[in-house]
């Protein structure tokens, strides 16, 4: 087992890095920050043109047939540069599910557009009253008609439908059999966002990101938009949660450490010295560096397992849990290190490192909720990894 990149993958990573340095200018970064929306059509299509959007997909679908390590370095660099990728990532994830379990007509209709940047898909899982218990979804889908003319009438709401106000579709979990146990009466749909009865209302997060609550009022979709079997939604959802739960946030730590080291080497203390000369400063930086290294190793273990044909379950939760809590710890540590100036925001001209320390602190708090809360992942590690009883 080793997690070092071979020469070809390192060269590929360097090309991705050079592209991101070219396109993610300070002006572009400020526009994204002000909007609170982690998506930009032009940027996404630029990745498509370069072959960085879905590198592991087959060539016939617009990919490059690259291996899991090439795919990983693309993800790492995009995260390290804080690129506006969330809608692109959810689109690619849902496209992978449709490719695996979607009907032929749906694959023909969605896959090419999703991989060339023409179609975008947001996630509609969580509901206002359900929290992390996704299977408790109360949004209803009732079948109307039979055969090819059958439609589903959807009523309900979803919380945290990030990018639902600009996406083309929402990948929606709905209850189709309320008389069955909650995990057995769910079905997945792809709901066009231009449907009558669909609405998105902005919800602003602590980090300044816009998410949405989306509403479905007698929204009608044909049966061709169903993904997977009727009442088989929990199994389909499991495919997406498998990918989400194996996420790692180490590259955000890399960026934080880079700026903290730059601040320590260039700022001037009251006595005229550089902070880096202080042993206590170096000790804090070393602590962040250790958290970063462990986070990256846990994530790369998941990639290694996938490359070996295994599915990381508890290992994916370990990666997600440790890296997000490490990001929160390290962000607080750096703020304490820098002092009150570290709380100056991104748009404040006098903020050290252009306000990235303050933003990292706010952003880090949400990462322990995204893709499953820390409590959910501890449960997965306990039950699936340690085989402990429920």
From TrEMBL:
Its cofactor is FAD. One of its GO terms (cellular component) is plasma membrane. The keyword Ubl conjugation does not apply. Keywords: FAD, Flavoprotein, Oxidoreductase. Residues 122-213 form the Acyl-CoA oxidase/dehydrogenase middle domain. The keyword Methyltransferase does not apply. Residues 253-385 form the Acyl-CoA dehydrogenase/oxidase C-terminal domain. Residues 10-118 form the Acyl-CoA dehydrogenase/oxidase N-terminal domain. InterPro entries: Acyl-CoA_Oxase/DH_mid-dom, Acyl-CoA_Oxase/DH_mid-dom_sf, AcylCo_DH-like_C, AcylCo_DH/oxidase_C, AcylCoA_DH/ox_N, AcylCoA_DH/ox_N_sf, AcylCoA_DH/oxidase_NM_dom_sf, Mycobact_Acyl-CoA_DH. SUPFAM superfamilies: Acyl-CoA dehydrogenase C-terminal domain-like, Acyl-CoA dehydrogenase NM domain-like. One of its GO terms (molecular function) is oxidoreductase activity, acting on the CH-CH group of donors. PANTHER family: ACYL-COA DEHYDROGENASE (PTHR43292), ACYL-COA DEHYDROGENASE FADE29 (PTHR43292:SF3). Belongs to the acyl-CoA dehydrogenase family. This is Acyl-CoA dehydrogenase. It comes from Mycobacterium alsense.
